[in-house]
Amino acid sequence: AQSVTQPDIHITVSEGASLELRCNYSYGATPYLFWYVQSPGQGLQLLLKYFSGDTLVQGIKGFEAEFKRSQSSFNLRKPSVHWSDAAEYFCALTGANNLFFGTGTRLTVIP
Amino acid sequence: DGGITQSPKYLFRKEGQNVTLSCEQNLNHDAMYWYRQDPGQGLRLIYYSQIVNDFQKGDIAEGYSVSREKKESFPLTVTSAQKNPTAFYLCASRPGAGTGELFFGEGSRLTVL
């Protein structure tokens, strides 16, 4: 069965520090993977996606993610976090009929 | 601009009342979805529709109903049978089932008083 796990419920980083949000998935075939960001009370915005090809994908707002099949992971990274990056981040995996979402990681950025 | 419009953004309802949340898209997408979001639980699928006049139950369909009479519209009714309806509801669409990412609306927050 398909599933997505985001082990970290809440992460706090200092502004300017690097960031890595973890995502692990379970899927029988080659997965299509996504990272979304959600500001409070808003909808979800796509940051990046992986379908095939280069395992390091670039997204918007300076984010990138690396697909590692051997580890069943798709971790999100950013070299230098800005205060405006504070939000909730969701990893998702496509199934036959819809997307499966992780439970999210809330990012707090401290000055 | 193309996108998904959800209304109302905030809605208050008394127990025992049905309420309908609107979702309209002008992206010409075939597939549309309703998710429920609760703190710490991520997004859970309520219903989805891959084509007009057809829809399928998701993981938590009990107490909800939908219709898909037009390609652009996929309203969700939260019925009085839904035991715990207070939540944030998100509508989404994509070009076809199984293809690519979802595009989301801004959400509707329902509070039952």
Q: What is the N-to-C succession of helices and strands of chain A?
A: EEEEEEEEEEEE
Question: Tell me about the biggest sheet of chain B?
Answer: 7 strands, mixed
Helical content band of chain B = under 10%
Largest interface comes to:
A-B, 23 and 27 residues
Number of helices of chain B: 0
What helical percentage do the residues of chain A reach? Answer: under 10%
Structural class of chain A: mainly beta
Distance between the termini of chain B: 36 Å
The gross shape of chain A turns out to be globular
Oligomeric state of this protein: heterodimer
Overview of this protein structure:
The complex is a heterodimer of chains A (111) and B (113). By secondary structure, chain A is mainly beta. Chain A is 0% helix and 52% strand. Chain A has strands at residues 3-5, 10-14, 19-21, 24-26, 33-38, 44-50, 56-58, 64-68, 73-78, 87-94, 99-101, 105-110. In chain A, strands 2, 5, 6, 10, 11 and 12 form a six-stranded mixed β-sheet that branches. In chain A, strands 3-9-8-7 form a four-stranded antiparallel β-sheet, with no helix packed on it. A two-stranded antiparallel sheet of chain A has the order 1-4. In chain A, strand 7 (56-58) and strand 8 (64-68) form a beta hairpin. The mean pLDDT of chain A is 94. Chain B has 113 residues and is mainly beta. Chain B is 0% helix and 50% strand. Chain B has strands at 4-7, 10-13, 19-25, 31-37, 43-51, 54-57, 64-66, 76-78, 87-94, 103-104, 108-112. In chain B, the strands form two sheets. In chain B, strands 2, 4, 5, 6, 9, 10 and 11 form a seven-stranded mixed β-sheet that branches. In chain B, strands 1-3-8-7 form a four-stranded antiparallel β-sheet, with no helix packed on it. In chain B, a hairpin with an 8-residue loop joins strand 9 and strand 10 (103-104). The radius of gyration of chain B is 13 Å and the shape is globular. In chain B, 37% of the residues are buried. Chains A and B meet through strand 6 and strand 10 of A and strand 5, strand 9 and strand 10 of B.
